[in-house]
Amino acid sequence: MASLAAASSSVAFAGSCSTKSSAPLSSSSSSLSGFRVAAPFSTVKPISVRGRSIVAQAALYPNYDLSSFKFEPIREAIVAREMTRRYMTDMITYADTDVVVVGAGSAGLSCAYELSKNPNVNVAIIEQSVSPGGGAWLGGQLFSAMVVRKPAHLFLDEIGVPYDEKDTYVVIKHAALFTSTIMSKLLARPNVKLFNAVAAEDLIIKDNRVAGVVTNWALVSMNHDTQSCMDPNVMEAKVVVSSCGHDGPFGATGVKRLKSIGMIDKVPGMKALDMNAAEDAIVRYTREVVPGMIVTGMEVAEIDGSPRMGPTFGAMMVSGQKAAHLALKNLGLPNALDGSYKLGESHLENLVLASADDETSASA
């Protein structure tokens, strides 16, 4: 297992993408099924693939004998017990937690990532889809590239996502590169648990404050009308961050539920597209809308009737970061909004600037 954990590789493409380089190791390389593979501790010379120069760096590979490969034996019951025990332990652990983030799209993932930097904050992420990421697996109209307007690219620098730099924006060659990168870093942290294929069916309200969420398997939630009563479960939290996205079957469910129980007056829905107005508004109005519940991402546009932003993603990232620091503030912990947090990274300085407007001035 140690050799598998240590195995890693990094490929840098010469061209338009902005990447950070590191010194290669030294020895020889071999070929496997037409692909050039670096041997352990090797100096790898650049090779040409489809006219592009590729350098394999710091590659360590386990010594598999692929001609007669065989797995270690295991009992099927052990597999079942390992999955069940660990999942049930997570359910017990996060039945009462610090922050629940509802929705694992680009805003929710960015929020959870920022929160997870504090090892004392336990974060549960609820995502109704089997596949977290929301709309961030693709750009607009099912295209691959993701456009991020500056200065939100500083967040990409922090998590290590390469991009093609332009004057006022950057372009990630495939949106999935952002989503997979932030998920891999976030989910490796010990204070984070993603509950995917789980729906937040309702809110827990105590003393006019949001105190958690009501949960159920997503497939159960989608079939309440076709089956007999299938009661839900619960997850208490000190703070709930609602990042359910724009309106849809599972969209904007947090603010729509607040309206239905009379905690807010209306949810007008987002206005027509205006990228320049929309992204600033989404970050500016990311806020605690009722005690215990913070709204981030496109759900902000739904509650405020602000313009939709279209296929740009910077506001999702920075809105998620701001929501995280609002949650930290709510928990009485150091944060970037009241000056108690040491601004160690440049993107947090921009976060403070983005939140300087009076949050209470958001349109009704």
Detail the poorly predicted runs. 1-43, 343-364
Whole-Å distance between the termini? Answer: 56 Å
Helical stretch tally: 11
Helix and strand string, N-terminal first? HEEEEEEHEHEEHEEHEEEHEHHEEHHH
**What is the share of helical residues?**
25-40%
Q: Please state the average pLDDT score.
A: 84
**β-sheet strand percentage:** 15-25%
The shape is: globular
Largest sheet: 8 strands, mixed
Descriptive overview:
By secondary structure, the chain is α+β, with helices and mostly antiparallel strands. It is built from eleven helices and 17 strands. The strands form four sheets. Strands 7, 8, 12, 13, 14, 15, 16 and 17 form an eight-stranded mixed sheet that branches. A four-stranded antiparallel sheet has the order 2-10-11-9. A three-stranded antiparallel sheet has the order 1-6-5, with no helix packed on it. The longest helix is centred in the first third of the chain and has 18 residues, at 76-93.
Q: Keywords for this structure?
A:
364 residues; alpha+beta; 11 helices; disordered N terminus; disordered C terminus
Set out the fold topology.
Layout: H1 2-6, E1 10-13, E2 17-18, E3 29-32, E4 35-38, E5 47-49, E6 52-57, H2 76-93, E7 96-102, H3 106-116, E8 123-127, E9 146-149, H4 153-159, E10 163-165, E11 169-172, H5 175-187, E12 192-196, E13 198-206, E14 209-217, H6 218-221, E15 233-242, H7 253-260, H8 275-284, E16 287-290, E17 293-295, H9 298-304, H10 314-330, H11 346-354
Parallel strand pairs: 7-8, 7-15, 8-12, 15-17
Antiparallel strand pairs: 1-6, 2-10, 3-4, 5-6, 9-11, 10-11, 13-14, 14-15, 16-17
